Amino acid sequence: MNHDSYDNTYIAGILNSVKTIAMVGASANDVRPSYFVLKYLLAKGFSVFPINPGQAGKEILGRMTYARLADIPEPIDMVDIFRAPAAVPGIVDEALRLDPLPKVIWMQLGVRHDEAAARAEAAGIKVVMNRCPKIEYGKLSGEIGWTGVNSGVLSSKKPLMRSGFQSFGVRQK
């Protein structure tokens, strides 16, 4: 797969299919990007499990924080990686030991590791690199356009209403 560019249907398919997300590198610091993304994804109805060994056993935004992926008490659909690229191979190895396997490995903005991505894809896991699910959700749902940002997505279709604060959901093309 070409990870330099993603089709909107690929990203929309992922965001519409995942329900549980493990956020590796989640921060309790409310000025860190991972905190904002965690808060946003929770507001959109995703069940997000923060992973941060230094915060394990404590809560971040009301969610119990775990030290490792294997500590999460339920199956995970997506692993969202908020760590430096050098940490990605170990995180992917840990994800590949989960049973069942996650559907998606998502690497945040600035995070890319082609070798680890290839191993995940060989195991049947979809991969997204150098993207933010908060930004992609906002772009594909039309929310980002509310602030005057050109999302590149035009539609004359009535938005699909979902529960939550001003959440139209991600459009499937």
UniProtKB/TrEMBL annotation:
Coiled coil: none annotated. InterPro entries: CoA-bd, NAD(P)-bd_dom_sf. Residues 14-111 form the CoA-binding domain. SUPFAM superfamilies: NAD(P)-binding Rossmann-fold domains. Gene3D superfamilies: NAD(P)-binding Rossmann-like Domain (3.40.50.720). PANTHER family: COA-BINDING DOMAIN-CONTAINING PROTEIN, CYTOPLASMIC PROTEIN-RELATED. This is CoA-binding protein. It comes from Mesorhizobium ciceri.
